Each structure stands twice: as structure tokens, then as C-alpha cells.
Amino acid sequence: MTTPKLEVKNLSKTFSLNSSLTYTVSSISMRINYGEFVSIIGPSGCGKTTLLNILAGLEKQTTGTIYIDKQKNQKLLGKSGYMLQKPLLLPWKTVLENVMLGLTLKRISEKKAKQEACNMLKKFGLSDYANYYPHALSGGMAQRVALLRTILFNNQFLLMDEPFGALDALTRLSMQMWLLDVWQTYKSSVLFVTHDIREAILLSDRIYVLSSSPATIIKEVNINLPRPRKHEFLKDKKTVEIEQLLEQLLLNL
Ligand SMILES: Nc1ncnc2c1ncn2[C@@H]1O[C@H](COP(=O)(O)OP(=O)(O)OP(=O)(O)O)[C@@H](O)[C@H]1O
Ligand SMILES: [Mg+2]
After folding, report:
1. Distance 45 CA to ligand 2 centre (A)
2. pLDDT tens by residue, 55-85
């Protein structure tokens, strides 16, 4: 079996509210192989963000073991690039400066950071926006900038929490293709959270379906369909079958 980038064994998280303990995620075991694109879908409030926060090292699990590159329970903070639903760009910094942040966080010199950030903006078609401030960007453009910043911080292991959830359908389509391009360029290992079944199928090698709270994995679906994928791929007979299966699963939760 391929070595995993990430392996999670029996992960649970409880919060204590009004002196009673509630489970948010319960007995989650999962893996992401190197270069694999894995999605998580599950109902609202089931614990997806909590799971990503734990994997990013922002919260601590109650029980369970996390391995990254086969190493057990190491310090997780900084081991992944974490992209949130909202782009969270600093309004007083330009696009270029916002993208550079991914590198300055790694204590790379300003000169080198600027050079790398410029190259990145050029490579992914954002050079014309380098001196814009975030308020002048469309939602899709702001997400692209946030993604480049995340990738400059860590392009090998990406955690993405519904990054396209707030975008209109058309922008979303172009962002999905753009993300696949970025993923293929860096051969990143990705864990992607979404509510959108079709988005999960289009992007993923594998999908984990989570139950309602407390979240456990109720199904793992392999998307063994050819790449590169284009949107027409969603009309494919096999794709539609998987979509119906996932829809049924989520409707019955
Ligand atoms: N710090 C906390 N203290 C208490 N309960 C919490 C805390 N953080 C999250 N929860 C609870 O854990 C559950 C899961 O929350 P989480 O944000 O992980 O869900 P989600 O699957 O990401 O939801 P959505 O799809 O709406 O983004 C919720 O019921 C929430 O109220
Ligand atoms: Mg969430």
C-alpha cells in the first residue's frame, strides 16, 4: 500500500458545554496518500472545520493519533497550508504583499519573498493585480490570492475548508479548474471540505462521507475516473451514478 502523507487513527474531540460532554468528531480514521486529492462531505455542523482545525494544529484532539509523513503526534502547526472559507486577506496590504505573507511567515527574507511571490502571481495569471488592494478584488480573485499565499507557505499538504462556498456558480467552475491546475503543478496532498457533491466528484481521487454530529465516517468512495477532468465529465454516466449514491447517503442522514 502507498505511504500516506497523513494518517488519522481513532480521532475524537469532545467539547464540554453546560457541564456535559458532547462529541463533535468521533472515532475518525482516515488517510491521504502523497499527491492524493481527498474530499470530505458531510452535513452542516457535523464537525468538518473542527477536524481541519485539529489537523492544522489549531485545536487539540481529545483522543486519537495523527501521523504526518509517518511521524506520530508531532507539532502540527505549520505542517500544512490551511485555507479557510473566507479569504482573510489583510486589507492594508496589496495582493503582492498578501501573497508574500506565506513566505515571511517562514522567515524568508523580504527580497526573496517578493521575487517568489512575483513569480507565483505571473505563473498563475495574477500579475496585473499585484498592486491592487483586497477591497478592489472580486470574490474569486480574492480566493485565488489566498490560495497562492497558502501554497507559498506550504504546497505539499493543503487543508481547504469550503474555499469556494461563497462564490457564484460560474466563478466556482473556473476556480475548480484553477485549483486542479495548481494541485497538478505541485503534486500536493489535499484535504478538501465541501457541501457540494459534484465539486467533490470533479476534484477528488477519494471522498469521505461524514455522518451528522458527532461526525464519523460512514462511507469512503473511490473516484477512479480519468484525469485531466473537465466539467463535461460531470455528465458522464459513471459520474452521475456516484452523484446519486452520495446524494442518497446524505439525504438519509
Ligand atoms: N469551541 C467550541 N466549543 C463548543 N462547541 C464547539 C466548539 N467548536 C465547535 N463546536 C461545536 O462542534 C460542532 C461542529 O462544528 P464545526 O464548525 O466543526 O462543524 P462544520 O461541519 O464545519 O459545520 P459547517 O458545515 O456549518 O461549516 C458544532 O455543533 C459546534 O457547535
Ligand atoms: Mg465548517
Report:
1. 7
2. 999 999 999 999 999 999 789 999 999 999 8
Q: Which ligand is nearest to the CA of 59?
A: 1
**Which residue's C-alpha comes closest to atom 3 of ligand 1?**
15
Task: Decide if 169 contacts 198 (C-beta within 8 A).
Answer: no
**What's the pTM value of the predicted model, to 2 decimals?**
0.94
- Answer yes or no: is the C-beta of 163 below 6 A from any ligand 1 atom: no
Instruction: State the CB neighbour count (10 A cutoff) for residue 243.
Output: 16
Q: Tens digits of per-residue pLDDT, 18-41?
A: 778 888 999 999 999 999 999 999
- Please tell me the CATH code under which domain 4-84+156-251 is placed: 3.40.50.300
Q: Which residues surround ligand 2, an ion (CB under 5 A)?
A: 48-49
Residues 143-167: pLDDT tens digits? 999 999 999 999 999 999 999 988 8
